[in-house]
Amino acid sequence: MTVSLPGQLAATSLGRSSAVRIVDLGLGGARVTPPGLLSAGVSVRLAVDAPDRWDPLILDARVAWIRGDEAGLAFEHSSGRTVRALVEVISQHGYD
Questions:
Q1: pTM here?
Q2: Domain range spanning residue 43?
Q3: Considering just the CA atoms, what is the radius of gyration of the chain in Å?
Q4: Could you tell me the CATH number of the domain that includes residue 6?
Q5: Of residues 34 and 93, which shows the higher confidence score?
Q6: Which residue, 45, 56, 63, is CA-closest to 89?
Q7: Domain count within the chain
């Protein structure tokens, strides 16, 4: 679903962290801009700053692709709790 949410992308193994804009969000992944200095296959942690949540939603992911100034992330859900929280974020923004 097309969104426009602020976020923070961290690649702890590389010691990198940067602010991103989440422009597409779904249960399986997200598209963010700008991708920073990452490459495909890197494990990352995405913090989604949704206006209806007190704390950011933290999602583990892997960089699936980088094209120009965008990166595609594939989520690696570790629990049903993160999936439920992601469903809440998506539904709060009026998406099915």
A1: 0.88
A2: 2-92
A3: 12
A4: 2.40.10.220
A5: 34
A6: 56
A7: 1
For 96, the 3-state DSSP assignment is: coil
| Alpha-carbon gap, residue 20 to 36, rounded angstroms | 8
Q: Is the pLDDT of residue 56 over 60?
A: yes
Neighbours of 30 (CB within 10 A): 25
* Band of pLDDT at residue 79, cut at 50, 70 and 90: confident
2: its two tokens: 């097309």
In degrees, rounded to 5, the angle at the alpha carbon of residue 77 between the alpha carbons of residues 25 and 32 is 30
Residue 32 tokens read as: 């963010």
CA distances in angstroms from 72 to 19, 27, 33, 55, listed in the order given: 15, 13, 9, 23
Which value, to the nearest 10 degrees, does the dihedral of the CA atoms of residues 88, 43, 80, 83 take? 20
Q: Are 38 and 30 in contact (CB under 8 A)?
A: no
